[in-house]
Design brief:
Rossmann fold; Helicase, Ruva Protein, domain 3; mainly alpha; 49% helix; three-stranded parallel sheet
Length: 170
């Protein structure tokens, strides 16, 4: 663990000792720390660079944090993972484009993604996917930048996997 890592500690109560310990350890290693709790002014928040507090109020069944608290924390995790996917270039617009078509279901999904991202027809998308070895991001860059699969892969590499940037590369 180092300063390129981010550690998220979840504690519905906001005071779970092992979550506090995990955040302390992560911070000592230089990682960015995030806490998620379902109360205000929590202990775990004091140990996080980015505290997220969602005051959900008492559970219908006392002690059953899988209800409101667990649901709220799951929603925050979904938001964090979605933002992470955007940040690391796995999306283009509102499409999850980092798909490698390795089975029939994914081949169909990748073809539909390429069609939507580029405005091309299904046959052209399928051909681009074949040339891109089933990799949707490469096929999208090929079609939008009007280049070969090799050039699209080079562009994606230079753009650190970001499709939008790769399309704009000369």
């Amino acid at each position: 663990m180092n300063d390129r890592d981010t550690v998220v500690g979840l504690a519905a109560s906001g005071r779970t000792p092992y979550v506090v310990g995990g955040l302390k350890h992560a911070a000592a290693q230089g990682a960015v720390t995030v806490s998620v709790a379902c109360n205000r002014d929590t202990v775990v928040s004091r140990y996080a660079d980015i505290p997220i507090e969602i005051p959900t109020g008492p559970e219908v069944l006392t002690g059953s944090t899988r209800l409101k608290g667990g649901t709220a924390e799951k929603m925050v995790c979904n938001m964090l993972s979605t933002a992470s996917m955007v940040r690391v270039g796995k999306v283009y617009g509102n499409l999850m484009v980092d798909v490698r078509a390795s089975n029939e279901k994914l081949v169909d999904r990748a073809r539909r993604i390429v069609v939507e991202a580029t405005g091309t027809d299904a046959d052209t998308a399928a051909e681009a996917l074949r040339a891109a070895d089933g990799h949707a991001k490469t096929a999208i860059v090929m079609l939008l930048a009007r280049c070969t699969a090799e050039e699209a892969a080079r562009r994606l590499n230079l753009a650190h996997g970001d499709t939008r940037t790769a399309v704009g590369h000369p």
